[in-house]
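Inputs:
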Amino acid sequence: MKTVRCLVLLAAVGLGATAQADPLPSWADTEARTRIIDFVTRVTDPGSPDYVTPSARVAVFDNDGTLWSERPVYFQFLFAVDRLQEMAADDPTILDSDVLRAAARGDMKAVVAAGEQGLLEILKVTHAGMTVAAFQQEVSDWIAGATHPETGLAYSAMVFQPMLELLRYLRDEDFSTYIVSGGGLHFMRAVTETLYDIPPENVIGSAGETRYVVVDGVPRLMKDPAIAFIDDKEGKPVGIDAKIGRRPIFAAGNSDGDFAMLEYTMSGDGLRFAMLVHHTDAEREFAYDRNSHVGRLGRGLDEGPGRGWLVVDMATDWEQVWPDP
Amino acid sequence: MKTVRCLVLLAAVGLGATAQADPLPSWADTEARTRIIDFVTRVTDPGSPDYVTPSARVAVFDNDGTLWSERPVYFQFLFAVDRLQEMAADDPTILDSDVLRAAARGDMKAVVAAGEQGLLEILKVTHAGMTVAAFQQEVSDWIAGATHPETGLAYSAMVFQPMLELLRYLRDEDFSTYIVSGGGLHFMRAVTETLYDIPPENVIGSAGETRYVVVDGVPRLMKDPAIAFIDDKEGKPVGIDAKIGRRPIFAAGNSDGDFAMLEYTMSGDGLRFAMLVHHTDAEREFAYDRNSHVGRLGRGLDEGPGRGWLVVDMATDWEQVWPDP
């Protein structure tokens, strides 16, 4: 049965005008790869009962832990700490709370202990009070020079090669690929075009309030400290509705923060696909799930397979994790 | 000088592979038409110093009064009143305020007197407490059957033919066309694909809060009464940043509610275009500007021309207003 399907698949791929010889070279020859290619083939073949018109081929991807690594903490947070330290060097009086002082001296344990509230406090100081353009320039400059505290790699070298291939494969098959992440909208936009070839209009994320002001005749978009939207958990389908207005047919995530997005994606009519990246590879990347303080994955492991979601085992389903240097 | 430019223009248009013989047949042979074609030609000609790469060819359009009529009041408001009357027929107790009772008996004068607050009250009753999908179905059903109180026309027959041609012309020249309107996001999405060939992901509008809930295992997006975002005045550049993340190079509006959007568009580098539709044609459509309660246009008329913005005189620049029946 499996062999027959593979042969049919190979024939279909071989016949497709835009299909490549091997669209997913970094994926091992396992069921994960087969299921992805099977899905894409079925929704893109005009003769298939599962055919989906290109405008409805919407694919959504979480970012942290799904498209790039997220340990020891979200990279945006490492940016925030670097930026806080830089700002405090100029003006130490900005460190007016315990969590800010802890972050500035690099005491991540204390910062993590302060929870979401502490995190927001750091974001408010480091992600507001400047124009959107200036902020995005800061992020671009940072990512061009900063290195990861554990691997010593550039952050841009810690994207997942198999996911880059998957993004490209879907776009080659006329999917629109979107990022739908709890990460900051402006932070992500500063890097997503370079890292993933995803343009700013296809990025959905958390955001602070933005204010339009005209100073000396020059219009500016200013970043304010108040939170406007949190694109996580139940916020993800809401963000998808607000910005896309169509239910995706493909969703990829790696944590329970993506559960609602995958659930929403899968509940529409017709053939749909949901996948969770399971971080099982302590040797090549990191291994964590239920008890992690970032990217916690419990409910997805418990319920995902029963709901027909693919759980990608990073250690066995991926030939390679990060791109070649 | 003008003749020379026109000849160059005609040559350029004639040579363009995707250009049509006459992209704007409903536009009179006036300066307005010439300026639009001149702009498009210059930003799309790879040999031009003003060339803009396709991904940056972002064009934004207000909706009410720019793409379709807006008198005597915004069509969405006429929908809301129709819906309120229908709801009150089932359950008269929903009419628990003066403005709701006034709206239900069709006393538009009293509703207008209640100002923005009264309007919001009516929207909250008629635009919340149901799923996004059910609401959009209501709007689709309404627009398929309702007629305008003064013209007796279907609302879909009161779109502006010259603007339909402009939208198509820009898209043929690889522009992305977006609606950026004070109108409701979900209301507009129910009609914009049919009316303007603009897909849901290219619609930016005002929105209430949306909530993701799972009822009996079925995910739903519910419309809540609280306001999440008002996409008007200074909110328009903010909405553009939130959803597109690029500064447009072309913006069209018709009221001072569009001023900030046009100002923001024009303040970037390179060649840019802003236009205001001036409602000067009481015979074929409506004539109003400074003293209108909808689509008030004063500052735009005063400052627009000095800023290089095109003010389209509907009576003389358009051969035709609404499409042929």
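The radius of gyration of chain B is 21 Å. Flag for discussion at group meeting.
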